[in-house]
Amino acid sequence: MRQTQKLEAIGQLTGGLAHDFNNLLGIVIGNLDWLEEHLPDDPAVRKRFKSAIGAAERGAEVTRSLLSVARRKPMRPELHNINDLIAEMLPLLRTSAGSSVSLIIMPSDAALNAMVDPSGLNNAILNLVINARDALQDLSRAAQIVISSSKVSIDSRHGLGLLPGDYALIEIIDNGKGMPPEILAQAFDPFFTTKERGRGTGLGLSMVLGMTEQIGGTAKIISSQGEGTTVRLYLPMPRASGERLSADGKRQAQALVVDDQADIADITCQWLESAGFLARSASDIAQAKAMLDSEGIDLLILPAMIPGSDSALPLVSDARSRHPDIMILLTGSMPASLPDAVTEMRWASLNVPYRKQDLINTIDSLQERQTRH
User: Fold this and answer.
1) Angle, nearest 10°, between helix axes 313-322 and 285-294?
2) CA–CA gap between residue 54 and residue 344 (Å, rounded)
């Protein structure tokens, strides 16, 4: 218990420091992004800029590592070809599966573009392949793992709790021992493991499920004892047009940025206006509530943890009740869990610090999900 309390205290301290440092890096990166558009066409100046932005982004990677220690690292979904990501992992997957296992890759015929966090997806697939390898020990038949990808259309009849639309489906299939019903029922529970002491933390499958749910997908396991196991990852696909929310000719879409850091709010508003929004900012929850009451807000951007408040979630719930179609973008360190009322909303998360294109890509994803809904 003392060790657990010590780790929790370290995590809280680390997360707090990373949050403050991220705010500073957000201001630096935001202003550097603005300067890039106004730099003279001078190779020496461009070289200095790349050095500065590179150092700032490396600093952001350090804080993301610190947030991982604090378990506050949100996913950063971006548009990627799933088949390409799996192909890039293939040498590592073959090594992890072992020489005694036949690893078969069955990619979809067409390009399969989906919104994913590449690092999160890579970790999930690697974890699932290692689990499958362990389930293939001491088999009397040839051991085999199949990784397939395909496009599926989901509606309410599937009972997956997903928004209707198209999803990229990744299946990791083994012909191993399988799971009895009582084990299958607990497979996604944090800290549950059937491995002997010292070989498993019980966090692998819960992290896989958490990764998919954070980006608007889900994960399912199909298994029975002696019949092998299939793990299915459902990942949201964007519209082919890739359009994002913009003025519709009748009313300009409005965004509200809530942040106590004026410099961050200012640069975010500039980016939003360049993307076609009418952007306003609020420095605290009270001001944000007043603006939500009096104005038609289409997009709300705010830190998941607001100084002076336990979290932004009450404001998010209030905004959703007043504006049923509002899109929510939470930035920075995420709470350990989200209420059901929040997870059902059209929302996304974005790591801090972020660049202009990160913001636009995330809004694209939100708009896509809103259109499907």
Assistant:
1) 10
2) 37
Strand partners, 280: 256
Nearest alpha carbon to residue 216 among 86, 73, 112, 74: 74
Could you give the C-alpha distances from 319 to 24, 116, 117, 307, 328, in angstroms and in order? 28, 27, 27, 19, 9
With a CB cutoff of 8 Å and minimum separation 6, the contacts of 151 are 108, 110, 112, 166, 167, 168, 169, 237
Model-level pTM greater than 0.70? no
**Vertex 230, ends 226 and 236: CA angle to 5°?**
170
Alpha carbon dihedral 254, 260, 261, 264, in 10-degree steps, equals -20
Q: Over range 214-228, report the average pLDDT.
A: 85
Compute the distance between CA of residue 67 and CA of residue 65 in angstroms, rounded to an integer: 5
And the tokens for 20? 């403050």
pLDDT tens-digit readout, 292-310: 876 678 889 988 776 655 5
Number of Cβ atoms within 10 Å of the Cβ of 13: 13
Residues 193-219: tens digit of each pLDDT: 666 554 554 556 777 887 787 777 888
**CA dihedral of residues 290, 291, 293, 298 (deg, nearest 10):** -150
Q: Count how many Cα atoms sit within 13 Å of the Cα of residue 362 in the half-sphere of its side chain.
A: 30
* Number of other CB atoms surrounding residue 316 within 10 Å: 22
